[in-house]
Design brief:
Layout lengths: L2 E7 L6 H10 L5 E4 L10 H12 L4 H9 L7 E4 L2 H7 L1 H11 L3 E3 L9 H4 L3 E6 L5 H10 L4 E4 L14 H9 L7 E4 L5 H10 L2 E4 L1 H8 L4 H15 L3
Parallel strand pairs: 1-2, 1-8, 2-3, 3-4, 4-5, 5-6, 6-7, 7-8
Helix pairs in contact: 1-11, 2-10, 3-5, 4-5, 9-11
Length: 238
């Protein structure tokens, strides 16, 4: 079965953990939880807006980890954030706190491959690959990543797009011979049809901005959970 990982920005609403529970109930295989950071350079306008909303609500790492620790779902929770937060606290302590809260793995998009060893020593670290990544580096990413390889379909920021990037097929074809891990496509996957197309190329998809646009527009956990269920059905051929 193809893997589905929807995303939510931690702290974006008072009931943000209910979205996590709704996603799990809707058939998500993993759930990405974004830890807010003041300068989200890889994120486009939608997730930037969600991050700003979370910080304006007073989201802190301590509060978020406490809230995560109270979530009880049967699927892995994958945290994502920027290297500044990891470095500020120190990788061993930061990763230990994530694990104690119930986080299974971590994505740090601005952490260079050459500098990821300390973090990877303390938690499963998911690495990213892009259309510009050379083949030799793809092989190293495929070897050192854990859980899956996050294949970024475009050279740019996150955000909804009208169609799946043309680079998705070529990138997947380059990565898969170089790793035994699942390859998940992300960045710009917005509709059930796009999710189904991406799942036909790779082992799964990551859906972030399209989820958060619904949250920011006021859709509640049940409504956004129904959207995740639509993605799941499309990817399963239903």
């Amino acid at each position: 079965m193809k893997l589905l990982m929807p995303y939510v920005t931690a702290g974006v609403t008072a009931d943000w953990t209910q979205y996590v529970r709704a996603f799990a109930a809707a058939g998500a295989d993993m759930i990405e939880i974004g830890l807010p950071f003041s300068d989200p350079t890889l994120d486009g306008p939608t997730i930037q807006e969600a991050t700003a909303a979370a910080l304006a609500r007073g989201a802190t790492l301590d509060r978020i980890l406490h809230e995560i620790s109270e979530i009880s779902v049967s699927v892995p929770l994958i945290a994502s954030t920027y290297a500044n937060l990891v470095i500020r606290e120190g990788a061993p302590k930061f990763c230990r706190r994530l694990r104690e809260a119930g986080v299974s793995a971590l994505i740090v998009p601005d952490l260079p491959l050459e500098e990821c060893a300390e973090v990877a020593d303390h938690i499963d670290l998911v690495l990213l690959a892009s259309p510009a990544t050379p083949d030799r580096r793809l092989a190293e990413i495929g070897r050192r990543s854990r859980r899956f390889v996050y294949a970024v379909t475009v050279m740019g920021t996150t955000g909804e797009r009208d169609e799946l990037a043309a680079s998705a097929a070529a990138l997947t074809a380059r990565i898969k011979p170089r790793t035994e891990l699942p390859v998940l496509l992300g960045f710009g996957i917005s509709t059930p049809a796009q999710a189904a197309e991406a799942a036909g190329l790779a082992d799964g998809v990551v859906v972030g901005a399209a989820v958060m646009r619904r949250v920011l527009d006021g859709a509640g956990p049940a409504e956004v959970g129904a959207y995740v269920a639509e993605l799941r059905a499309a990817m399963s051929g239903g």
